[in-house]
Amino acid sequence: MIFPNPFARLTLTAAIDILLVALLVYQLLLIIRGRRSAHIATGIVVLVAVYLIARWAQLQLLRSMLETLAPYTAFALIVMFQSDLRRMLARIGQRGWLGSQLQRRETFEELMLAVEQLSIEKTGALIIIEQEIGLRSFIESGVPLDAEVSRDLILSIFQKNSALHDGAAILQRDRVAAAACFLPLTMNPVSRALGTRHRAAIGVTEEADCLSLVVSEQTGQLSLASGGEIETNITLEQLRARMAQAFGLRPRTGSRSMKKTRRFTEAEES
Fold first, then answer.
1. Average pLDDT in the 71-96 region?
2. Residue 222's beta-bridge partner residues?
3. What CA–CA distance (Å, rounded) separates 113 from 119?
4. Angle between helices 12-32 and 36-57 (to 10 degrees)
5. Which residues, 6+ apart, have CB-to-CB distance to 80 below 8 Å?
């Protein structure tokens, strides 16, 4: 008995088609993994399985009810998955992992100096760096500055007695666009150890492809959020490496930032 070859009708076009569909499904699974959307997707799979069982077992009432609800499923999915769909489309349209709007090396160094000093002093801070997707709606919620990025400016914004320390500072290209900006909090489950500042850092990256830097007010520890995910308790050198990669810059050796911050600290103590 001769069995037919299952790959006989597999053409190059069909193979490419299968690979593209698999890639889209994989990207979707990456986006909803660990979120509430994953539970919703599981519920949809369960309903599909129940429908198939109802057809096989000829359960007419259950089958009719599910078939009546089916035409409205597409609209319900758009509403439930709107943030995830927006994030998936933004990821597909991105040029690289995180396209940088900060082009100048000096801006990068000033930012790293400020973050290091904030961490040493255990001063809470939330700094958002705009990427491909604009953050105009969030910028308009804060106090407009349109000032050049500098260590002293960022430190002044997040001083505890400053009127601008609550909220986030948003960097747009090489300038601080606004401070004291209100950001959406993530609705996805996160660790109880993360406070409002960290939840806001995650929430804004769910809406746009921005980068969020967080300095903990309790411990001075650094965190980095992007794409709806956050990496906590990272070292300054790890942060510099990730930021340099995001900005398309080659990390410098010798830790210029640490030397310069030490010089500032010694000057302040004297």
1. 66
2. 215, 234
3. 10
4. 120
5. 37, 40
* pLDDT score for 256: 47
What the block records as the tokens of 99 is 């396209």
Q: Do 27 and 91 meet the contact criterion of CB atoms below 8 Å apart?
A: yes
3-state secondary structure of 187: coil
CA distance 124 to 138: 20
Q: Which domains does the chain have, with CATH numbers?
A: 12-93 (no CATH), 105-269 (3.40.1700.10)
Cβ pair 50, 59 in contact under 8 A: no
Give 61's Cβ-side CA count (13 Å radius): 0
Q: In whole angstroms, give the CA distance from residue 154 to residue 265.
A: 16
Secondary structure of the chain: what % helix, strand, coil (to 5)? 55, 15, 35
Q: How sure is the predictor about 241, in pLDDT bands with cuts at 50, 70 and 90? A: confident
